[in-house]
Amino acid sequence: MNSKGVSPIIAMVLIVLITLSLAGAFLIWTQRTASSLTERGTEQSQRITGQFDKGVRIEATDCSQVAGADTLVIRNSGTTAWKGADLTFFINDALSTSAITFSNNGDVAAGSVVQATFSQGLASGDKIRVAYQDVSDSTICK
């Protein structure tokens, strides 16, 4: 018999090689996808865990509308220390231009409080927000 074309043995070898190369490509793709998802999950869990390390909470306010007499008592509600100077203050959603002095210029340990005194008077109804990195707390002066 004089048949032309690919012999059945060569055809079978080619099919096996194509199947193995497709399986290898799929395996590499799966491993890279799983690795990428694992890295993203690790980054997100570290970011969420980092949120617990940082914390700021306004404990009390004294808004007497007298410059130099208005104070906030701020608690470090996180698990790591921070400095009062690291806090950012917003009054009515605008960055505060008031000079602020702190009762403690050093580190504020986790669970401790610091008193912040504003050089400008705060009016009743002013919204005050205190931010430390990416966490914040706010209150309304009464």
SSE sequence, one letter per element = HEEEEEEEEEE
Spatial order of strands in the largest sheet: 1-2-8-6
CATH class of the largest domain: Mainly Beta
Helix content: 25-40%
Mind telling me the C-alpha Rg?
A: 31 Å
Please give the CATH architecture of the largest domain. Answer: Sandwich
Give the biggest beta sheet: 4 strands, antiparallel
Q: Unreliable segments (pLDDT under 50, ≥5 consecutive)? A: none
Concise summary:
The chain is an alpha+beta fold and about 140 residues long. The chain is built from one helix and ten strands, in the order αββββββββββ. The strands form three sheets. The chain has a four-stranded antiparallel sheet, with no helix packed on it.
Q: How would you describe this structure to a colleague?
A:
By secondary structure, this protein is an alpha+beta fold. The protein folds into two domains: 1-53; 54-140, Immunoglobulin-like. Helix content is 32%, strand content 30%. It has one helix and ten strands, in the order αββββββββββ. The protein has one helix at residues 8-53; strands at 57-62, 70-75, 82-83, 88-91, 94-95, 100-102, 107-108, 113-118, 127-132, 135-140. The chain has a four-stranded antiparallel β-sheet, with no helix packed on it. Strand 9 (127-132) and strand 10 form a beta hairpin. The longest helix is centred in the first third of the chain and has 46 residues, at 8-53. It is rod-shaped, with a radius of gyration of 31 Å. The chain starts with 7 loop residues before the first helix and ends with a strand.
